Structure formats: structure tokens, C-alpha cells
Amino acid sequence: MFVLMIKLFFLPLLAGKFLIATSDVSSMIVSMEKMRFPKPIIIPIAVMFRYFPAFKDDKKNVKMAMKMRGITVYYVDGGTITRQFSKVQFFKLDDAVRRQLGLRAIDFVALQNKVAKTAPTGKQLLIDRIDYPLRDRALKMSGIAFNYGSIIGIYGYNGVGKSSFIRLLMGLEKRAKAKILIGDKALSGKQRLKRSYLVMQDVNHQLFTDSVITEVSLGMADKYDALAVERILKGLNIYDLKDKHPLSLSGGQKQRVAVASAILSGAEIICFDEPTSGMDYDNMIKISQLIKQTIDNDTIIFVISHDHEFLNNTADQICALAQYNQATL
Asked: Is the pLDDT score of 318 beyond 60?
């Protein structure tokens, strides 16, 4: 047993340095067989070195392996590889070509600092006070107004309180000490909840019916009709899926079904939690456009997102929650 443990520890390290230069996985397998390694150990180690030659936490070796092996980027359209790029070619794609291909931003996109504009109707959602515990910290906000007719991007690092903020804004959090007004009227949690709609990050929890068309029509506001449903489904590129069961769809398609339901709900306060996670450029833009078409002077939309590209295209105002996340005494 001790000898086996030594083999398991030292051979991968020695073989790793050898394979980065030679890529000779077969030689390593032969050597391991001569040393009487069992096949359940040989196979995963061989696979590891074939595809992850510098599996250790060693950034220099990883970079060297990538450079020596080279990288090819394949573009798949409709299940078929239609184009391929070298690493250099791919990172030199200009924005126009990238968007034409439906690809997300390749380089880091800086988040634009957008501040509140004057509300067209003067109607506001006012946070008079929020005090909500977050482990050893707390979310504390006071005297902050959000304008109706605006899309508010909620931004911050993981754990800062983004989802908690949305939940208590809607009246879903019972522990929070909060006073929130719409116009000049303070509303209870139940009153806010009646005016709100939430698209969760995991939309599997809010898909209930046996077809897309039934799902998005469930709870539809009176101001919408069959033509509006068709327009919105086509705008989200899911009209051809209208008779499919929502749970049979891909993750991105389910997300778009939930977005359509939110838009058709006619809710006054609409909240989205990471609505573009895993989406390509085309579908991200479609969601952005529909959200912007949905907003009016009687609606306010809050969007939680880490997606700079999406927020830059969609939000009228950015609320960075880190400034309200305070240590508790």
C-alpha cells in the first residue's frame, strides 16, 4: 500500500513535466503498466495528462502547455462546425464580426456608471429604511429613491446581498426591518408582493404548466392579448417552441420563457435575477430589447446581474450594493 501511494504521488509529477514537452501519453501508459499500476488508476491519469498536462496549480506550466499545444476555437452553428480560428485570430475578432457571429464580448467590458435621471412622472419607489442582517454584516439603506419608468441594475460581489435586497423589496423577507414607500404611501410586505413579479436565477422552480404558450399566458395581465403573446415569444426566439413542455427546453430557453411570463404579468415591480446567465449575444440583446420595451411610467424594473455587457445595454441606473453592506458592531 505504501509503495502504491508513492507511485501515485511521484509518477504524475514526473510524467507531467515530461508530457508538457512530448505529449507522449502512450509512453506513460506503457511505463505505468510495467510498474503494475491497475487500469482504474492508469486511465484517469492518462486522460488527465492528455487534456490537462499541467493539472497542478502551477500557472506557468499551464500557460507553457497551452502555448506549446496551441488552441483552436471552433464555431458551431446548428450542430455543425462552420468556422475555426487559431487563438490569435479569435482574440483579434473585431466587435462587428463578433456580434454577427452572436458571440459575447471576448475582452473584459467595463461597467458604465449610470446615475438616476429625473422620473418622467415624478413617481418613485423610496427606501426610507432597510436594515437586514447578513451573517457578520448587514445591508443598511436609507433615503434612496428609484424612479418609475427606469431599469435599475443591481450589482455587487457574491454575498453582498443582491438577492436579499430584491426579496425584501418585494416583501418576501420577514426578518428585515424595512420601510418602503411608493409615491408618498408606505406599503407593507404583502402589499408590495401583490405588485411584484420575480424571475428567479433557477427558473425550474417557477415553470408549472405543460406547454410554453400556457405557461406565459398564466396570470397574464388584461392589457395583453394573443397578438402580444405572439410578439413577445417571437421577440425572444421561442415562438416555435410554444407547444413544447417548458421543462423539456434548454436552460437558456427556459430562462426566456420565464422572462416572457414576467413581461406579460403586467406587474408594477418586476425583478430579474441573472436573466442572461449562459446566453449568447443574440439572445442577450433580445432580452435587453424586450425589457426596455416593457418599461413605462407605471413600471419599475430591477435586474440583478454580473453581466457588464448586458447592464451597459439595458440599465438606466446602476445601484452598487457594496456601499450599503456594513459590518455589524
From this structure: yes
